[in-house]
Specification:
289 residues, alpha/beta, 7-stranded mixed beta sheet, 8 helices, binds zinc ion, ComA-like_MBL, Metallo-B-lactamas, Competence_DNA_uptake, Metallo-beta-lactamase domain-containing protein
Length: 289
Amino acid sequence: MQLEIRVSRKAWLALALLALMSGLVWAGIWQYTPDGKLHVTVYDVGQGDAIFLRTPTGVRVLVDGGPDQEVLKKVGEELPFFDRRIDLVVLTHPHADHIAGLIDILRRYQVRHVLTTQAQAKSEYYREFIRALMDRRIDIIEAHAGQLITLDRWTKMRILAPVQILPAAAVKDPNEASIVSRVSLGIIDFLLMGDAPKDVENEIIASGQAIDAEMLKVGHHGSRGSTGQQFLEMVSPLYAAISSGAANRYGHPHQETLDLLERAHVKFFRTDQEGDIRFVTDGRTISRD
Ligand SMILES: [Zn+2]
């Protein structure tokens, strides 16, 4: 009888421990489960771009990968360790500050689709990127204006540029071929500019596509070569995010861009000052996450 009591005490302890542990595991999983909202994070990856989107049903999109492996750390914190799925990777254009971090993403994650253009680069990064795409047999989608990508039942990604599809040899400056996309949930829109310069902005305006957005990921790291006044007026964002490295050699973001945003009363945030910039929306309102 005495022995039986001791055993059941042990069993009770084991059960309590098991409950505690499974509780911890569930708490761990809980933080990654879809919450019915769209989360958009402009990562602080130094001088470059990497933007992570998580839709209300948990679809994951990574737009660009920054200049190095920093993005692996960022995405690693975003997803549970046992789940390596990324539904869509967008390479806006093949410059090193956008493509370099994507090579390891393709190799280490289960990337389902890659959206890109014909624009090429004569760099080892570009060759490695193509090699990784081939090795992993990833589905490649070519971007063009007017394309509508249904991320989930509620979240759409519309491609605004490139407006004209040019063969690789005709692309002089990859920035000109940047993929520009507008991600929408309900009445809230995010406009992701890549490094598109002002003439691409003007092409988008001329194409008559809707460009108004609550959040603008400012083009080309806040360079004065992007974000024209008319374009900004038409987008009329509440918030803007600038992805640029501290003390970068280009002087990004340029003062002209910051002045323009200020005059337009846009609340802007810089990765070099704020670190990761997180936004969240339920489709009706947008706020910092
Ligand atoms: Zn860039």
